[in-house]
Specification:
It is a single chain. With 646 residues, this protein is α+β, with helices and mostly antiparallel strands. It starts with a helix and ends with a strand. Strand 14 and strand 15 form a beta hairpin. The longest helix has 24 residues. It binds alpha-D-glucopyranose.
Length: 646
């Protein structure tokens, strides 16, 4: 092998595989990797593809079985079998301790959110109160003594829910004859499907939760196990492979002609790790959501056999290893590129965006609960625990802002050199945007979107804040303050349709520079402060966790006024979410599923515990020990005289 060839092979990621005992990586493959990397990776992928495929003529044989995994995954042979040709075993017989029967009582209707909001202690903006009062008057007057109107209202709500279930079921996609996921949108009005006919990992989470809450466990189990198999896929873009353990953003079930037999077809799972996605961004959130769903599945179905499987345990560890790998970073937060999550286009969220950190924390806690204790995992568990402590401290301390903290930042000294600097990230007070000075309520606060050296992204990102409440990366006080802020800023964050993805929009030159003049992300549209009904479910979990479900119930009631009539759009545009989004899909599955999850959880709030992780007192203790044992901190403390670089 010539030097240049060797170098190229290393660059393409081919060389290590040559020695890794990958049976699909022959000498001819390695030459191919050098000359025709894309074609070669396809060929290798297709060998792997054979391993996963289902043949409609049942020609499975033993082709490739057991020999197809490269690298570190140990495979549970029983799974190989079912993956090839059988439906994953049914788990529908499994029930939860408390059974399902009581789940469908609609407690949300009993909550009477309008009453509790108007009379409750929570501070609302004046305009909101007026609007609510008017709505209440119309509500009562139109029904005389209220009863006929209520009956009509309930019937209407029931039919919205029925319609949502029907649409959710229509979006289910099958593989080997078994339900395996839900496609992103089934919009008959749109001729350009792009990749909305695929099963997105993040989009499936509310679908999966809705099915779990309904006692339909098979689809979730199949989804978990099939996406796990995709984790080991050969993923390559222009000679480069990302780290082992990455989960795809989406996958599609394709029907292709069977090799060597024109008359037969077979189904294959075709994943996209970002190599075909717009912007070519790897989805960092997929693996984190997968872990969260896995725990929810176990908690809801009572079937722990899935999380205990060897291949599932290995899958969890691969995700953790990828996330916990050492890099150049000084921060415990995960460093990612722009668009690695729900916001999957350029929106200036590269660095350490809150959404990823909240999901990371949540996934670490869920994984810790599920990992089987064994010596081989001791190092991983140690790394995980250390990261949990450092991560929660970092977020609570440096991402939090409220009026008091904002005033501190306003008075920050800069250019501090020392271990105990107050302004650790050298934030220049001029960065505080004028809108925030007006916007920050007296009561309430939130976690900022991102923190980098000399940069705070002060935008309010909803999913990050809501999941910080759910995962307990935010303290109890901070969690309440986030909900206080949501109430105080109702007209900005909910208005005519819940829930704004972020606030405020990037406009003018900022929009040009930060989004690259993205015509889809114009101000108050799509990711740039558009409103996404799917966020209703995360809002509901957060509100239930803090024992304030009436906030979510009120948002659901607002959504119910339009969402079905508007045909379940993906997102809404304008400051008050008055228009269906410019390029919004209709019949977007996660809008439908998000609504259903919100309804089901409000009907039985105790079920939210399958998604919630509580603050861990062990971690709090570990944190104080860590701080007091840190020699740098001690040295910094002793030497209170600060030094400044001039
Ligand atoms: C858009 C969203 C992304 C979602 C996908 C499919 O790209 O930004 O979060 O997963 O559509 O619905």
């Amino acid at each position: 092998m010539g030097t240049s060839e060797a170098v190229l092979q290393v660059l393409s990621g081919a060389a290590p595989r040559l020695f890794s005992g990958d049976p699909f990586f022959s000498a001819s493959d390695s030459r191919c990797a050098f000359k025709l990397p894309l074609k070669c990776s396809r060929r290798r992928a297709s060998s792997y593809l054979q391993f996963l495929q289902y043949s409609s003529v049942q020609q499975f044989g033993a082709r490739g079985i057991g020999s197809s995994f490269s690298g570190s995954r140990k495979v549970d042979p029983s799974w190989l079998h079912s993956c090839k040709c059988q439906k994953a075993e049914s788990v529908s017989g499994v029930t939860t301790e408390d059974g399902n029967g009581a789940w469908f009582v609609d407690n949300a209707k009993k909550l009477n959110p309008i009453d509790s909001m108007v009379n409750g202690p929570n501070v609302l903006e004046f305009q909101d109160l007026q609007q609510l009062k008017q709505e209440k008057e119309v509500f009562t007057s139109s029904g005389g003594n209220g009863a006929p109107r209520d009956t009509f209202h309930n019937l209407n709500i029931d039919s919205i829910e029925d319609e949502a279930w029907e649409l959710l079921r229509e979006s289910v996609t099958y593989y080997c004859g078994s339900p395996i996921g839900t496609i992103a949108a089934k919009d008959p009005t749109s001729s350009n499907v792009l990749n909305y006919d695929q099963v997105f990992i993040r989009d499936f989470i509310p679908s999966g939760i809705a099915f779990l809450l309904k006692g339909e466990y098979d689809i979730v189990r199949n989804f978990i196990l099939h996406t796990l198999q995709l984790q080991s896929w050969e993923k390559t873009m222009d000679c480069h492979s990302p780290g082992q353990g990455l989960m795809p953003a989406s996958f599609k079930v394709r029907t292709v002609p069977l090799d060597g037999d024109d008359s037969a077809t077979e189904e294959v799972l075709d994943p996209d790790f970002g190599e075909a996605a717009i912007g070519r961004v790897a989805p960092v959130d997929s693996g984190l959501w997968w872990i969260i769903l896995l725990r929810a599945y176990g908690k809801c179905s009572g079937d722990l056999s899935v999380q205990e499987r060897v291949d599932v345990q290995t899958g969890i560890k691969m995700i953790l290893r990828l996330c916990l790998a050492d890099g150049f970073d000084m921060f415990p937060t995960l460093l990612v590129t722009d668009g690695p999550c729900m916001i999957d286009r350029r929106m200036g969220i590269h660095g350490h965006p809150l959404e990823i950190q909240a999901l990371f924390y949540s996934a670490l806690l869920c994984a810790r609960e599920m990992l089987a204790p064994e010596d081989a995992s001791a190092d991983l568990l140690r790394a995980l625990n250390n990261r949990l402590v450092a991560l929660s401290f970092h977020i609570r301390e440096y991402y939090w802002i409220d009026l008091k903290k904002l005033n501190e930042i306003y008075r920050y000294k800069t250019e501090e050199y020392s271990y105990d600097a107050v302004n650790k990230f050298n934030i220049y007070p001029d960065q505080i945007p004028p809108w925030l000075v007006e916007w920050m309520p007296n009561k309430g606060g939130y976690l900022i979107g991102n923190l980098q050296p000399a940069h705070m992204d002060f935008r309010f990102f909803s999913l990050g804040n809501l999941w910080s409440v759910v995962s307990s990366i935010a303290t109890v006080d901070q969690s309440h303050a986030i909900l206080d802020l949501i109430e105080a800023k109702w007209t900005d964050l909910v208005a005519d349709m819940p829930f704004k993805i972020c606030y405020p929009a990037l406009e003018g030159q900022e929009w040009q520079i930060i989004t690259g003049s993205d015509p889809k992300n114009t101000p108050w549209s799509y990711h740039n402060a558009g409103s996404w009904p799917t966020l209703l479910w995360q809002l509901t979990v957060a509100c239930i966790k803090m024992n304030r479900p009436e906030i979510a119930a009120r948002a659901v009631e607002i959504a119910e006024k339009r969402i079905s009539r508007d045909k379940w759009p993906e997102y809404y545009d304008t400051k008050r979410a008055r228009f269906i989004g410019k390029q919004s899909r209709l019949f977007q599955t996660w809008s439908i599923a998000g609504y259903l999850v919100a309804k089901l959880l409000l009907a039985d709030p105790s079920k939210a515990k399958i998604l919630i992780t509580e603050e861990d007192s062990e971690l709090v203790n570990a944190f104080s020990c860590m701080i007091s044992a840190n020699p740098r901190r001690k040295r910094g403390r002793k030497d209170s005289k600060q030094t400044y670089i001039v």
